[in-house]
């Protein structure tokens, strides 16, 4: 059976949320059946050669739908956000490895920075009230998906850069004192590096979802290389699209600031 495919999906809802974030759901029964939390799709952008990678924010296998929540960054995401209900969205999916469902005795901590929060929503569902989300945003207006996490039973802690909501400061300030059995993180590289150091100090597993510029999305163009360390300590290059986007943080060779 094919692990991924190229197919047309119908957009069943799309709306702009705060901070230039588009919340879009599509009818895609093939991919919704196979998709795992943390995986992504390469979305075709009308008029562009390269597809744009966007993670699954929601997966409804029974209903055959997928949800994407993405920020308008440039032309590609801008054109995707301009698409309307009933339009056809071509995609290559599901891609990548996704979050491993590890036991996480002691609770699962999800750490998201800004637009790194959406890929964590589906993964947090399986932990119900055993999950805590620590999420960092620029300001109160940029907060996304808080109610969606809470609806699943997840406790949500928010930090904002300007102190307009929740903790005034970095998301990592809030997690130093928490107890948890495993960490799942997605966001900017410095945040991922800091989270993985905290997890390492507490001796708990930490999975990080990495982002790189992508072209093919299937390991063929070598465009999304990332430096990894093998079990024997030797450094090699892996690919975010094929070997990731989720990595055990102990594998990642973090770039110097
Ligand atoms: C596996 C994966 C999953 C992703 N999931 C999401 C998601 O769920 N929601 C979401 O909002 N975004 C997600 N992204 C980022 C998204 O793919 C980019 O923002 C998008 O490709 C930008 O395309 P553009 O044409 O709009 O912007 P461009 O004109 O190509 O670039 C505009 C700006 O965005 C930056 N950018 C472009 N590509 C990336 C990238 N891959 N990572 C980080 N910054 C980038 C550029 O450096 C530039 O500053 C994901 C990226 C990857 C690799
Ligand atoms: S995007 Fe081509 S190898 Fe990853």
Molecular structure report:
- This protein has 257 residues and is α/β, with parallel strands linked by helices.
- It has three domains: 5-95, Beta Barrel (Elongation Factor Tu (Ef-tu), domain 3), CATH 2.40.30.10; 99-209, Nucleotide-binding domain of ferredoxin-NADP reductase (FNR) module (Rossmann fold, 3-Layer(aba) Sandwich), CATH 3.40.50.80; 211-257, Dihydroorotate dehydrogenase B (pyrk subunit), domain 3, CATH 2.10.240.10.
- It is built from six helices and 16 strands.
- The chain is globular.
- The mean pLDDT is 94.
- The structure holds flavin-adenine dinucleotide (FAD) and FE2/S2 (inorganic) cluster.
- Flavin-adenine dinucleotide binds next to strand 4, strand 6, helix 2 and helix 3.
Key descriptive features of the protein:
Dihydroorotate dehydrogenase B (pyrk subunit), domain 3; globular; 16 strands; binds FE2/S2 (inorganic) cluster; seven-stranded mixed sheet; single chain; 18% helix; Elongation Factor Tu (Ef-tu), domain 3; 257 residues; Rossmann fold
What's a quick, concise take on this entry?
By secondary structure, the chain is of the alpha/beta class. The protein folds into 3 domains: 5-95, Translation factors (Elongation Factor Tu (Ef-tu), domain 3), CATH 2.40.30; 99-209, 3-Layer(aba) Sandwich (Rossmann fold), CATH 3.40.50.80; 211-257, Dihydroorotate dehydrogenase, electron transfer subunit (Dihydroorotate dehydrogenase B (pyrk subunit), domain 3). The chain has helices spanning 29-34, 75-82, 118-125, 146-151, 189-201, 240-243, and strands at 5-17, 21-27, 40-43, 52-55, 58-60, 65-71, 88-95, 108-113, 131-137, 155-160, 167-168, 182-186, 205-209, 225-229, 235-239, 246-248.
């Amino acid at each position: 059976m094919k692990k991924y495919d190229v197919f047309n999906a119908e957009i069943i809802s799309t709306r702009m949320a705060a901070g230039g974030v588009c919340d879009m759901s599509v009818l895609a029964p093939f991919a919704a059946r196979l998709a795992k939390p943390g995986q992504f799709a390469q979305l075709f952008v009308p008029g562009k050669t390269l597809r744009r990678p966007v993670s699954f924010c929601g997966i409804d296998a029974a209903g055959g739908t997928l949800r994407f929540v993405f920020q308008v960054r440039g032309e590609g995401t801008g054109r995707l956000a301009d698409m309307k209900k009933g339009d056809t969205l071509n995609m290559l999916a599901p891609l990548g490895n996704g979050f491993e469902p590890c036991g996480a005795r002691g609770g699962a901590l999800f750490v998201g920075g800004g637009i790194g929060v959406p890929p964590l929503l589906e993964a947090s569902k399986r932990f119900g009230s055993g999950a805590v989300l620590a999420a960092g945003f620029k300001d109160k207006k940029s907060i996304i998906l808080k109610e969606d996490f809470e609806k699943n039973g997840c406790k949500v802690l928010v930090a904002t850069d300007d102190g307009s909501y929740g903790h005034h400061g970095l998301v990592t300030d809030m997690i130093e004192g928490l107890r948890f059995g495993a960490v799942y993180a997605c966001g900017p590289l410095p945040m991922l590096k800091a989270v993985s150091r905290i997890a390492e100090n507490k001796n708990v597993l930490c999975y990080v979802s990495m982002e790189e510029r992508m072209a093919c999305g299937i390991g063929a163009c070598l465009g999304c290389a990332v430096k990894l360390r093998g079990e024997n300590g030797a450094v090699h290059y892996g690919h975010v699209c094929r070997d990731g986007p989720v990595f055990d943080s102990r594998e990642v060779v973090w770039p110097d600031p």
